[in-house]
Amino acid sequence: MEYATLAVERHDAVCRISLARESARNAQSQQMLDELDDALTRAEQDDAVRVVVLAGRGAHFSAGHDLKEAQAKRADFTVEERWEYESRRYYGYCLRIWDFSKPTVAQVQGACVAGGFMIANMCDLVVCSDTAYFSDPVGHTLAAAATEVLIHPWVMGLRKAKEMLYTGEKVDAQEALRIGMVNRVVPEAELDAATLALAQRIAQAPPFGLRLIKRSLNRTADAQGFRTALSAHFDTHQLSHLSEEFQAVRERGLAQAIQRNKKGEAA
């Protein structure tokens, strides 16, 4: 199937789904999120697909949610409308990546920011280029309680997650590797090939056995409170949109928040 915001390639038993809004640094529009969920559903239903790679075309994996679209279409949402939209397209879609029955590998280069950080870290493994960096600055730029899905402490440890979120600073590729958030760092010119080689190696394993392994590993996280913690944070994130701080940011313009962050200005 052809998509307007994605590129889907097959490499034998590996399906690579790439975010393809290069001119917008792969910012996640509503259409992109809906198409990504559809592409993942199709890949899961295809018995010939054993591993999925989630990538981003161009210089960056993803700059996060499309704030220009949010400003234009959702700035005046009611509490109920925001809850419904974010519950489905942010929280729900992310948990579908986490629960995807087949192994998933994120292929990351350049910016992996906020909503981009969120979807990449829902994948089982992460391979990144030496140019990659990870950040979630929305506590500074939007006065929001992090992103909708607080995957951070589960993939980088509690103290590092606090540092990242409290400061809004970036984590570079080598630091991400040191703290165990990514599996491998490779030169950017080798990223496509290295990620595909890893995915193809995984695809050699019997698929039902892999499915059971992933199920048990995810249940280990659930036994530690993973799903309960994520659900509780989603409520907290929604509450942060009702604060006077967030209202001030919204009045100044959501679409300008990321630009202020680049310049080091307060939101």
TrEMBL record:
SUPFAM superfamilies: ClpP/crotonase. One of its GO terms (molecular function) is enoyl-CoA hydratase activity. This is Enoyl-CoA hydratase. Residues 19-46 form a coiled coil. It comes from Achromobacter arsenitoxydans SY8. Keywords: Coiled coil, Lyase. Its EC number is 4.2.1.17. PANTHER family: ENOYL-COA HYDRATASE (PTHR43802), IP11341P-RELATED (PTHR43802:SF1). The keyword Kinase does not apply. The lineage of its organism: Bacteria, Pseudomonadati, Pseudomonadota, Betaproteobacteria, Burkholderiales. It is an enzyme of class 4 (lyase). Belongs to the enoyl-CoA hydratase/isomerase family. It comes from the Bacteria.
